[in-house]
Amino acid sequence: MEMKNVQDAALVRQYIDGNERGIEILITRHKQRIYSFIFSKVMDRDITEDIFQDTFIKVIRTLKKGKYNEEGKFLPWVMRIAHNLVIDHFRRNKRMPKFQSRNDFDIFDVISDGEESMEYEMITSQMHEDVRKLVDELPTDQKEVLIMRIFKEMSFKEIADSTDVSINTALGRMRYALINLRKIIDKNNIILTR
């Protein structure tokens, strides 16, 4: 039988039974999805690569210890491991991607105790995806400042230097970005709660 057509659960079983090829196919099959998920959170290729490798080291260790019991749910299980490693990364660096404006409108809030349910994770992930789409609707100058401030955690002075504008202009763009995000959210009746 062609190994590429084998279900995830069967490949996991083969790997547990000693066939190394099983894990290779699983990694190849799901690499793009898991890698993209990690990158969407950390926005850095080197960190993404490290977390991706750590994810599969953890997967392999768990499988070798015989502690895997998510029969038929391999991908969500791996995504949960990746998600928890992303949270660990931010905790280690004391840099949770969280931003609050003066009117307490949270853009991102991914602080987690690592014990959330799969539904909670999926909702959080979907919410982040929705916010990213909303950010894409902003004018380029506002989007640029927002991304630098939230994802790259640059100071307004660094943003001003990088975009060749005054600090007041950078602050103004951030303010308008938040106002426009609020308008887009209200216009589309989007609810950003979990």
Structure description:
- With about 190 residues, this protein is mainly alpha-helical.
- It folds into two domains: about 1-95, RNA polymerase sigma factor, region 2, helix turn helix motif (Rna Polymerase Sigma Factor, Chain: A, Orthogonal Bundle); about 95-194, Winged helix-like DNA-binding domain superfamily/Winged helix DNA-binding domain (Arc Repressor Mutant, subunit A, Orthogonal Bundle), CATH 1.10.10.10.
- Helix content is about 65%, strand content about 0%.
- It is built from eight helices and no strands.
Write the layout of secondary structure elements.
Blueprint: H1 8-16, H2 21-42, H3 45-64, H4 74-92, H5 118-136, H6 140-150, H7 156-163, H8 167-187
Helix pairs in contact: 1-2, 2-3, 2-4, 3-4, 6-8, 7-8
In the CATH hierarchy, what is the class of the largest domain?
Mainly Alpha
Percent of residues in β-strands: under 5%
CATH architecture call of the largest domain: Orthogonal Bundle
The domain count comes to 2
As a percent range, the share of helical residues equals 55-70%
| Overall mean confidence score, pLDDT | 78
Which blocks of ≥5 consecutive residues have pLDDT under 50? Answer: 98-116
Shape: elongated
CATH superfamily of the largest domain: Winged helix-like DNA-binding domain superfamily/Winged helix DNA-binding domain
Structural class: mainly alpha
Number of strands: 0
Q: What is the fold named in CATH at topology level of the largest domain?
A: Arc Repressor Mutant, subunit A
> What order do the SSEs take from the amino end to the carboxyl end, as H and E?
HHHHHHHH
Our measurement of the CA-to-CA distance between the termini, rounded to an integer number of angstroms, reads 44 Å
Number of helices: 8
Indicate the radius of gyration in whole angstroms. Answer: 20 Å
The description of the largest β-sheet is: none
